[in-house]
């Protein structure tokens, strides 16, 4: 799966950003999709996940109540709406796709990332 992220940038604390990930998804297949973030020198962490089979979602503790993951099937685009951003949300954000049941950290396809800076 090819993935291309966009929508990152600089924002003040309390502000909002919407990240987009254009994905080359096969409409006849099921995917696990997710947004991950990585601060330089630290491990990549999962922020929000979406399972295309039933559109169920999962959020990491840092994202609950502030971020929303969604998928526009017509546009094959995954979104992450981020509200009430905090300085600790500053990171490179990556979109990932993997076969459900596999380990995303070793088996996912990744986009190039988009930088989010909150200050």
From the structure above, extract its key features.
single chain; 119 residues; mainly beta; 4-stranded antiparallel beta sheet; 1 helix
Description:
This protein has 119 residues and is mainly beta. Helix content is 3%, strand content 50%. The chain is built from one helix and eleven strands, in the order E-E-E-E-E-E-E-E-E-H-E-E. The protein has one helix at residues 104-107, and strands spanning 3-6, 9-11, 17-23, 32-38, 45-51, 56-59, 67-72, 77-82, 91-98, 109-110, 114-118. Strands 2, 4, 5, 6, 9, 10 and 11 form a seven-stranded mixed sheet that branches. A four-stranded antiparallel sheet has the order 1-3-8-7, with no helix packed on it. It is globular. The mean pLDDT is 95.
Produce a short descriptive summary.
With 119 residues, the protein is mainly β. The chain has one helix at 104-107; strands at residues 3-6, 9-11, 17-23, 32-38, 45-51, 56-59, 67-72, 77-82, 91-98, 109-110, 114-118.
Uncertain stretches: none
Proportion in helices: under 10%
Note the gap between the termini. 33 Å
User: How many runs of DSSP E, i.e. beta strands?
Assistant: 11
The structural class is mainly beta
Helical segment tally? 1
SSE order, as H and E? EEEEEEEEEHEE
- Could you tell me the strand content as a percent range? over 45%
Gyration radius over CA: 13 Å
What is the mean pLDDT?
A: 95
């Amino acid at each position: 799966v090819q993935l291309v992220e966009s929508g990152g940038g600089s924002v003040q604390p309390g502000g909002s950003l919407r990240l987009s990930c254009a994905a080359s998804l096969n409409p006849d297949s099921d995917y696990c999709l997710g947004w991950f973030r990585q601060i330089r020198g630290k491990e990549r962490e999962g922020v929000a996940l979406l399972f295309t089979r039933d559109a169920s979602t999962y959020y990491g503790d840092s994202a609950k109540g502030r971020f929303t993951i969604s998928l526009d099937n017509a546009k094959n685009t995954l979104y992450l709406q981020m509200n009430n951003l905090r300085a600790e949300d500053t990171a490179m954000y990556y979109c990932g796709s993997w076969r459900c049941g596999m380990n995303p950290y070793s088996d996912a396809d990744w986009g190039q990332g988009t930088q989010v800076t909150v200050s």
